[in-house]
User: Which sequence fits this backbone?
């Protein structure tokens, strides 16, 4: 009996101690970890970076209304703080998202260096420059040389000055260009979600991004003219055709690969209905007889008319993309009490395309004299246009998550020519820019020719007038890319639409406030960053180096 | 013999009977209790022999002692034994006194080791079987409330089957800003859960299974209360030191009932209870005004009720949900409290039967239970079935084998979300305007002709241009009830096998192996019905298995006045987890819930790559307890753990503890009134390291490819290379005093607990490329006291009155922060999106701060007034130093009150719990204000610190100033845009800077007080001026959480056995029970501050859309055969 018990004891003890050695437990984890690193090859990293970066840009361009609101593409008719720049008043955390992608970009650069894939390293580095420039352009001084070095023990990275960052970024771009030119590794077509493995197009983007940054800093860089001349001279290739555009087409099969305004992302139409084209935008398109107007903007559901004979008549419109709308005219019958009450609000009559007045107060229901709040509800306004049904699609060949287009390049060159930074003809660049933009939105060659033939399009001889017209066209062309529009308007103060509508009591903001926890956690760096602003306060009106 | 042993082990049941000695001299008599009841099954033993008999059903016995001078020993469970010399008497009748708590009573302590209560040097809380089951509560954890000191039990909701959060002596966990293992860093309550041990086998900390916001109850709240012998709470570090790191937050020891110690032979017990669960304390909202944003303007699709008065004068188009047609009619109020109309009475029944056997050679107990709960929310149900077997067999005099096996099966065909924004309660409270039809008219929730495809919403939207269908504006609550289903099942198997061996006189050994295997299955089935929503099917499954094996060698001796108990042990732990979670985000065909029916590209695997988890640890531990002359006791324990499987993990920790107690009443001759006076002192150090963390970058593939291209995410974790193990050091001192024959018993303990070098993630600035770094983040010190008093003011033949109370108080503060963490000395962590937590030295754990401080004037005449922006609105201050503290969710004092009044066979018991102090934030109020539901939205009362005005003239609305009358264009423009002939102008309190001011620093003269001059006032209509304006500012909805709950009231009647014996029943008790039938809130609100959670098991102190209070009324009957 005793022997039996002893045996049980010993067996159980042995079983307990030997059943799992540490190594056998460790093996599974280590294997997974090894697999995780070795399975991420360059193509997967490339597709990931393209996707994350383009979607990140696009999210700021339409679904978030802070920037589209600030540049007056969009006015919200519900929760409309963005109509009056209110989000600029709070600390902005967008830095996080850029840093998240940059973490992957940096890791990818390291892996491509280990593998010796120079072309990929060059592309990744170009994206690095793009994202860092985004951060510095919006905030001022930010992390740069000490960024992303937590593993090396830098837990509180300092900020670099914006001028140092610009110098560094332009240097990085140059290196990236060399890497791409010299490299021989092939780009997998399916992973290159935009250029299908065409290296030359990545080099074009690299050069065009350089052009964008140099123009942005042209006031501060002594060699800006030389740089731009070199880029414009043809020695470097630039994005010249819409096939060069860095824009990712949506797949439209899932929420995450669909246009933000589509039914996957916004199953209810409320969010879509809350975003209306601004009156500034619509009136500009109308005044120039712009063929892009019906592509972008829907006809009003119940437009006002001064003609009593049209009362109740319905017209049906089909836009260039085949989406149809119906509009029913309503006579401005001042004998009706409800209409009379709105008399002062009725700004647009006998028009099918009407924008919502800029700088309108949040939850202002009566834009353009809309009174039928009972039927319209919280988001309905039958007297102001919505965006066209195009923007309610999950995917469409005209909808892309865009970082940069060829038309922007032409407008930069037009500006450089008008300012005498380069010797070319501003008008040629200007018209090329308009043409590229129109083509990108599906406008026919004939319509483009008609448009360009208008005297209202011609550039005047005076430089100020030239710059104004170029800026206006660039503003229109950058529609859906307001990340760039904002930085341009801030730099040039053009087009001068800052007092449009009800905006005269509001000042156009010049930057994002640093994320709130920078003050709490990285105070020394933050204080140093604020110190270089003019005046040295972390608010939206202080000028960073670029603007000083 | 060997074969026989094996058979016994397998069967786990035994049937041996003892035999009697040979007769010589006869004695007979009756054994009764002090109540006058006869005691069947009492033992009558001849002292110094094994010769004994049991009393029969009538308490009678016959015994033949060896001589007329023998001494008889009468004993019965729960009664004081009596020795009676025979002295040649042939009839001896004995009355045994019952004992409540004996001085020599034993308590189960760490590792299942029993110790004399007298020798304990630390504070333990104990709840006996009787107190757990008295009120028929089916949730063990809920029935502990009010009964143990030093423990804060918080129910996640009033739902009888909900999870319970347990914090022993508060929590000393430091909040962090990052989420780890699915637990938010700020969720200190959940991180500080104690270790649970059943019959000596650790079953881990409690997890909270929640999916889609649905709480499925914690695992241990599902034990059958009838199976539990007692629950012991080891509060301090000394008590739990033997469990190592896991025991650092206290240990809850559950001992299940066994057949041992009962009467000899077979016994059967049954109990049955049925309660009706009745919701009460409904939140009230205004039912006077309907949809819209201004009192003269109707908006049919707006869920806000800042619109016109519902006096029938406003006619509007509306969706008649009953006839499913657009109609135009006068809008009137349904006057319905939606919550009240929606909820139903629930019912909970619990039936349990157990069979036990007790013999000389062994014992067993086998029980079955069946609990069924029909929820107060329609279409919700929880069923639970349990089987438990406890057995013990003495192989020889020196060798005992015991085996326990438990199986609990829980199944909910549907359990609803009761907290947070996804719940139907949220919809009922905030989204369904009062002018909508009564809920009873919404029952047909499918659009005619579109069954299973399109919902008949509580309200619909007119078809918009280019939209093919009418859109759902507000979800039909009945659709959510019947078409958004959360099915859940849990199989929990746990048990142990144990061998006890008395090797020699002073040596004994124990070998125990226990395991727990919890399997959970879940599925979410959401039908089509919402616009552009194609339903969802999400099944998932997890299996967690833990094994623990202990081998312990014990030495026990008494040498003169010195007693020594020492043991050494080895422990091996192994755990394994597995899970999968597959989500079909869209269904191709409506109503078919299968993964194969997923729309192309919408099938995804959650938590890819984290399916398997394996862990193990080895430990060596030992204790030595010394007793001197039964009055001085010294306990020393030590434990060393080796655990972790990765290099980064620190894998070696030693935990020592020392505790001492002195029974002063044994040392000194104290007045007779004092039965026991004991002083206690304890110190313990418990350490812990890292688990499953590494300092590397890894990549994971994203679930959905981009077309044919794979995409990846980088997952980078950062671990401090200089990391050290963390320690939790507890010190406690206390005393016990028992007086007047134990009619007064007092205990008191003061404790200090230091959590030193806590390991967690510090947030790193985003510039590092990492969201956080795992390191030693700092120290937290908790301090507090706990005490109990039990008084028996009356104890006589017919009457007994006992009153007892427990008191708990604790506060924990951050005493040190790593300088790696917060170079500025503080960090604010996001708490629930509407509030923040401050992490700084000196900060009290549990404090909540404003998410957005209101900007105020800092200097001059107007200092302290709200500084309005250029539109005359409150503005957020972005200066972290402005952030105001809202309060602390921990109560200052938790007081439990128990009283029992017994008259003959009738007993009345009451249990109440009083929580004093603490604050919570009512998100309910925030939404009700913003949506125009709260009564406070009708008009600003006097002295309202935020606004002046009202919805209409009757409620204080002001006339709008003449257009253009202001001195400032900006005010003219502003007021003109909002102007109406209706008296609904309102404004917010504060000052604004003169619009003409140009410069950097305004002086007193540059400020204008809003409202001082009606011409120069920024007006707005109330929806904006109040509902919107204070939306961001939480300080306006923080309330005192002080509350009292009457947890249990029972009236029990024990039928006399003389009566029930005729139908072969014993101990029949019939009770009427009431649970949670009354609640008092100091703030007067109809909310349960205890349900202040923003989600399941997360973020205490935030209350949003939870169930109202639920009272249970019913009866219980129990009996033995």
Assistant:
């Amino acid at each position: 009996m005793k022997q039996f018990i002893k045996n049980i004891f010993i067996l159980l003890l042995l079983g307990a101690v030997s059943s799992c050695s540490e190594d056998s437990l460790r093996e599974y984890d280590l294997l997974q970890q090894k697999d995780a690193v070795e399975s991420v090859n360059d193509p997967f990293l490339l597709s990931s970076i393209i996707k994350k970066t383009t979607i990140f840009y696009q999210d700021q361009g339409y679904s978030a209304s802070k920037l589209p609101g600030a540049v007056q593409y969009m006015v919200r008719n519900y929760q409309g703080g963005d109509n009056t720049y209110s989000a600029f008043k709070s600390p902005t955390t967008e830095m996080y998202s850029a840093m998240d992608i940059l973490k992957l970009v940096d890791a990818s650069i390291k892996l491509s260096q280990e593998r010796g894939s120079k072309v990929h390293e060059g592309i990744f580095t170009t994206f690095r420059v793009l994202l860092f420039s985004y951060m510095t352009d919006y905030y001022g001084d930010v992390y740069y040389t000490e960024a992303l070095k937590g593993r090396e023990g830098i837990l509180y990275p300092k900020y670099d000055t914006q001028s140092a960052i610009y110098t560094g970024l332009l240097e990085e771009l140059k290196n990236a260009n060399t890497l791409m030119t010299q490299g021989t590794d092939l780009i997998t077509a399916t992973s290159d979600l935009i250029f299908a493995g065409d290296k030359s197009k990545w080099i074009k983007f690299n050069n065009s991004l350089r052009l964008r940054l140099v123009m942005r800093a042209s006031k501060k860089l002594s060699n800006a003219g030389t740089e731009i001349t070199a880029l414009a001279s043809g020695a470097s290739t630039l994005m010249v055709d819409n096939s060069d555009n860095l824009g990712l087409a949506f797949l439209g099969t899932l929420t995450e690969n669909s246009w933000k305004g589509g039914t996957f992302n916004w199953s209810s139409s409320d969010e879509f209905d809350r975003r209306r084209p601004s009156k500034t935008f619509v009136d500009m398109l109308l005044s120039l007889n712009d063929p892009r107007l019906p592509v972008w903007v829907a006809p009003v559901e119940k437009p006002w008319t001064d003609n009593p004979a049209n009362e109740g008549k319905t017209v049906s419109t089909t836009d260039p993309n085949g989406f149809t709308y119906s509009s029913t005219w309503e006579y401005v019958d001042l004998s009706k009490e409800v209409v009379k009450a709105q008399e002062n609000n009725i700004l647009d009559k006998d028009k099918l395309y009407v924008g919502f007045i800029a700088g309108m107060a949040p939850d202002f229901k009566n834009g353009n004299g809309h009174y039928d709040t009972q039927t319209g509800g919280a988001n309905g306004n039958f007297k102001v246009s919505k965006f066209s049904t195009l923007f309610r699609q999950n995917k469409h060949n005209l909808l892309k998550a865009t970082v940069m287009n060829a038309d922007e390049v032409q407008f930069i060159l037009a500006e450089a020519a008008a300012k005498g930074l380069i010797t070319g003809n501003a008008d040629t660049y200007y018209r090329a820019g308009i043409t590229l933009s129109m083509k990108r939105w599906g406008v026919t060659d004939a319509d483009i020719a008609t448009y360009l033939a208008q005297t209202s399009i011609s550039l005047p001889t005076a430089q100020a007038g030239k710059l104004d017209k170029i800026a206006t066209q660039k503003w229109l062309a950058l529609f859906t890319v307001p990340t760039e529009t904002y930085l341009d308007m801030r730099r040039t103060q053009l087009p001068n639409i800052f007092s449009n509508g009800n905006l005269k009591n509001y000042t156009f903001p010049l930057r994002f406030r640093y994320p709130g926890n920078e003050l709490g956690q990285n105070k020394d760096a933050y204080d140093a960053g604020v110190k270089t602003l003019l005046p040295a306060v972390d608010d939206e009106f202080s000028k960073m180096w670029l603007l000083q | 013999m060997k074969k026989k042993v094996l058979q016994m082990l397998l069967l786990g049941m035994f049937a041996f009977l003892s035999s009697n000695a040979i007769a010589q001299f006869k004695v007979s008599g009756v054994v009764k209790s002090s109540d006058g009841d006869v005691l069947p099954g009492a033992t009558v033993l001849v002292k110094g022999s094994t010769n004994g008999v049991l009393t029969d059903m009538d308490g009678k016995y016959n015994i033949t002692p060896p001589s007329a001078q023998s001494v008889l020993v009468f004993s019965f469970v729960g009664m004081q034994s009596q020795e009676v010399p025979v002295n040649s008497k042939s009839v001896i009748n004995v009355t045994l006194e019952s004992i409540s708590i004996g001085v020599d009573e034993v308590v189960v302590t760490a590792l299942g080791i029993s110790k004399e209560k007298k020798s304990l040097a630390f504070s333990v809380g104990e709840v006996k079987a009787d107190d757990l089951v008295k009120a028929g509560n089916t949730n063990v954890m809920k029935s502990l409330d009010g009964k143990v000191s030093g423990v804060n039990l918080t129910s996640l909701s009033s739902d009888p089957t909900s999870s319970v959060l347990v914090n022993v002596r508060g929590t000393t966990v430091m909040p962090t800003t990052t989420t780890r293992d699915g637990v938010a860093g700020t969720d200190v309550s959940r991180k500080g859960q104690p270790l649970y041990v059943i019959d000596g086998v650790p079953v881990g900390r409690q997890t909270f299974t929640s999916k889609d916001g649905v709480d499925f109850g914690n695992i241990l709240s599902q034990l059958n209360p009838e199976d539990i012998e007692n629950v012991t709470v080891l509060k301090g570090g000394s008590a739990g030191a033997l469990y190592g790191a896991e025991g650092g937050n206290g240990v809850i020891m559950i001992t299940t009932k066994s057949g041992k110690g009962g009467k000899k032979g077979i016994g059967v017990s049954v109990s049955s209870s049925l309660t009706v669960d009745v919701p009460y304390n409904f939140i009230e909202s205004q039912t006077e005004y309907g949809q819209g944003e201004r009192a003269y303007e109707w908006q049919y699709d707006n869920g806000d009720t800042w619109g016109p008065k519902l006096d029938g004068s406003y006619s509007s188009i509306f969706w008649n949900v009953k006839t499913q047609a657009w109609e135009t009619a006068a809008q009137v109020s349904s006057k319905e409290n939606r919550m009240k109309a929606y909820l139903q009475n629930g019912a909970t029944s619990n039936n349990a039967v157990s069979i036990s056997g007790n013999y000389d050679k062994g014992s067993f107990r086998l029980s079955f239970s069946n609990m069924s709960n029909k929820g107060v929310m329609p279409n919700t149900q929880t069923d639970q079935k349990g089987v438990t077997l406890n057995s013990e067999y003495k192989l020889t005099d020196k060798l005992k084998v015991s085996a326990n096996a438990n199986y609990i099966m829980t199944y909910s065909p549907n359990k609803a979300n009761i907290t947070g924004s996804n719940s139907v309660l949220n919809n009922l409270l905030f989204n369904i305007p009062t002018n909508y039809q009564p809920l009873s008219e919404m029952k047909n929730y499918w659009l005619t002709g579109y069954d299973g495809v399109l919902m008949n919403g509580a309200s619909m939207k007119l078809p918009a241009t280019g939209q093919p269908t009418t859109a759902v504006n507000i979800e039909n609550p009945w659709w959510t009830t019947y078409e958004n289903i959360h099915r859940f099942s849990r199989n929990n198997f746990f048990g142990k096998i144990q061998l006890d061996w008395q090797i020699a006189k002073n040596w004994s050994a124990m070998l125990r192996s226990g395991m727990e295997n919890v399997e959970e299955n879940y599925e979410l089935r959401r039908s089509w019905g919402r616009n552009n929503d194609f339903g969802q099917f999400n099944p998932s499954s997890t299996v967690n298995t833990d094994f623990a094996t202990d081998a312990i060698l014990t030495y026990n001796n008494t040498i003169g006045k010195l007693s020594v108990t020492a043991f050494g042990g080895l422990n091996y732990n192994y755990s394994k987890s597995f899970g999968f979670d597959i989500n079909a985000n869209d269904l191709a065909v409506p109503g078919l819930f299968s993964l194969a029916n997923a729309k192309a590209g919408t099938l995804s695997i959650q938590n890819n790559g984290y399916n398997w988890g394996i862990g193990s640890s080895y430990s060596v531990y030992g204790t030595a307890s010394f007793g001197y002359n039964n009055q001085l006791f010294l306990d020393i324990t030590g434990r060393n753990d080796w655990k972790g499987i990765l290099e980064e993990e620190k894998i070696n920790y030693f935990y020592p503890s020392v505790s001492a107690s002195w029974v002063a009443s044994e040392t000194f001759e104290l007045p007779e009134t004092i039965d026991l006076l004991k002083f206690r002192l304890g110190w313990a150090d418990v350490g812990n390291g890292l688990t499953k963390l590494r300092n590397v970058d890894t990549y994971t593939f994203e679930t959905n490819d981009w077309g044919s291209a794979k995409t990846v995410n980088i997952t980078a974790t950062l671990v401090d290379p200089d990391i050290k193990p963390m320690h939790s050091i507890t010190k406690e001192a206390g005393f016990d005093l028992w007086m007047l024959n134990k009619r007064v018993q007092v205990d008191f303990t003061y404790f200090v607990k230091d959590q030193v070098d806590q390991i967690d993630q510090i947030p790193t600035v985003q510039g590092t490329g990492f969201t956080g770094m795992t390191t030693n983040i700092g120290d937290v010190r908790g301090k507090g006291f706990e005490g109990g008093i039990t008084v028996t003011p009356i104890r006589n033949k017919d009457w007994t009155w006992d009153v007892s109370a427990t008191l708990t108080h604790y506060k924990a503060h951050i005493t040190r922060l790593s300088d790696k963490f917060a170079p500025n000395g503080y960090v604010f962590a996001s708490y629930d999106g509407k509030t923040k937590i401050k992490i700084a030295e000196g900060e009290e754990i549990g404090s909540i701060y404003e998410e957005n401080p209101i900007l105020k004037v800092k200097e001059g005449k107007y200092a302290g007034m709200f500084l309005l922006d250029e539109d005359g609105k409150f503005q957020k201050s972005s200066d972290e130093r402005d952030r105001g503290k809202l309060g602390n969710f921990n109560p200052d004092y938790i007081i439990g009150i128990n009283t029992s009044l017994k008259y003959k066979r009738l007993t009345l018991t009451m249990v109440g719990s009083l929580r004093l102090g603490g604050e919570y934030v009512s998100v309910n109020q925030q939404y009700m204000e913003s949506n125009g539901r709260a009564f406070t939205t009708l008009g600003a009362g006097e002295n309202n610190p935020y606004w002046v005005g009202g919805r209409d003239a009757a409620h204080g609305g002001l006339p709008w100033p003449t257009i253009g009358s202001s001195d400032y264009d900006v005010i003219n423009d502003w007021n003109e845009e909002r102007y109406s002939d209706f008296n609904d102008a309102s404004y917010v309190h504060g000052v604004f800077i003169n619009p003409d001011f140009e410069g950097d620093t305004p002086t007193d003269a540059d400020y204008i007080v809003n409202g001082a001059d009606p011409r120069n006032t920024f007006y707005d209509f109330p929806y904006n001026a109040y509902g919107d304006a204070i939306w961001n500012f939480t300080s306006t909805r923080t309330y005192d959480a002080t509350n009292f709950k009457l947890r249990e009231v029972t009236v029990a009647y024990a039928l006399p056995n003389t009566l029930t014996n005729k139908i072969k029943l014993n101990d029949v008790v019939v009770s009427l029970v009431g649970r949670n039938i009354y609640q008092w809130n100091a703030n007067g609100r109809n909310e349960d501050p205890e349900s202040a959670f923003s989600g399941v098991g997360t973020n205490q102190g935030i209350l949003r859309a939870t169930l109202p209070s639920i009272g249970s009324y019913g009866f219980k009957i129990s009996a033995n055969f």
